[in-house]
Amino acid sequence: MSKLLLTSITLLLAISVAGCNMMAIGYNNADWYLRYKINNYTSFNAAQKEKIQREVGVLMNRHRRDMLPEYIKFLKKIDRTLQSGSMEKEQISVLSNELRGLYRMTLRPTIQPTAHILANLNKPQLQEFEQTLKEENEKLKEESLDGSRDEQLNRRAEKTIDFIEDFTGNLSGEQEEKITLMSRQLPFAAPAFMQNRENNQRKLIKLINNNEGTEKIASFIGLWISTPENTRTPDEQKLINELQDAANGMIENIYTILTPQQKQRLRSKIQEYMADLGALTKQSQVTADWTAPSLTLFHMNPIDLSGGFAANNSAF
């Protein structure tokens, strides 16, 4: 549920490739979408739904105020890198680490309220919640792990090409062949992501079942989000490190085969993102004058290149 918030927001931001106005439409309706997705995890009672309704509003207001400016800063760094005319592996590694840092910053405010909701699920709600997780996992497996390894690698390459073309425009047949080969040579980490996801979900369910309380649940979710390496086996972490390093090298190699026109389109797309986010930030500053969300739950103190799972490896 906690990582779902970031995933949903990211998806809504991504639709800006369809046009500048679409980002504002999607982002301004993100609160409705998040409430809908969260409420589908289990049969919450009226009081729980009211709290979710209120606190998603809190999250979105904090996100507009605190995170949109951070996203703009990050995109400006990408733009400066593109302006320099080079995209070296070391630069890409720095940007990748910063992006993971933004991911953690975005999710940090969701940990405590999510833990509070989970700690107060009754037995039937918990059983339904657990079943929902299993159904989501099966869907993810179908999308990324069905078929032979050759089919899995081809699907990953196709997704990679589609993603690149959203930013660069159409690739040539020769470029597609080169990118397909690069993608197929990357380590295939989808099974490791899936295994880690299911193991962490089992630990989470155990904490809830044992009535460990908000603080312990929040601590575990925080560990999963902030230092996921500490929830993985040494073999899982080794594979993911290899994937991340190889992916950074692949991005460098892809950039070298783009035409000047494609590179310019890529930079223009990044600049469009910055402009759209800037407009959303100004809009949020105007609406802040009349928005006064409840902070109750937040001050409730007791507190994909992977094969499809890197982007979808949400906690629950």
Short description:
The protein is 77% helix and 0% strand.
Strand and helix layout:
Layout: H1 2-14, H2 20-28, H3 30-39, H4 46-83, H5 89-107, H6 111-119, H7 123-145, H8 149-168, H9 173-185, H10 190-209, H11 214-226, H12 234-257, H13 260-287, H14 309-312
**Mind summarizing the main beta sheet?**
none
Which secondary-structure class do the elements indicate? mainly alpha
Mean pLDDT: 83
User: How many β-strands, per DSSP?
Assistant: 0
The rounded distance between the terminal residues' Cα atoms is 5 Å
Helix and strand element order: HHHHHHHHHHHHHH
The total domain count is: 1
Helix content: over 70%
Uncertain parts: 2-20, 286-303, 308-315
**Relative strand content:** under 5%
The global form is globular
Overall description:
The chain is 77% helix and 0% strand. It is globular. The chain contains 14 helices and no strands. The N terminus and C terminus are likely disordered. The chain has 316 residues and is mostly helical. It has one domain. Helix 1 runs antiparallel to helix 2, helix 5 crosses helix 12 and helix 8 crosses helix 9.
Quickly list its features.
single chain; 316 residues; mainly alpha; 14 helices; globular; disordered N terminus; disordered C terminus
